[in-house]
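Protein modeling request. Please complete all fields; requests missing the sequence field cannot be processed.
Requester role: graduate student
Desired output: 3D structure, token encoding
Chains: 1
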Amino acid sequence: MATVKIDEAKCKGCSDCVDGCPVGLFEINGNKAKIAKDMGECLGCHACESACSKGAIAVED
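Delivered output (61 residues):
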């Protein structure tokens, strides 16, 4: 199972991860990205990591 980490200091709440994730794992809450679903739903595809222009998301396999 993949693990997704969000660096809140880098996150600007742009919602690129929300749009990029094929399973809808993220939501924006308080102008920051948050995990909105069970991490077990993550496909480990790194789409969110690629979509984040701020480098705030890291996917660890």
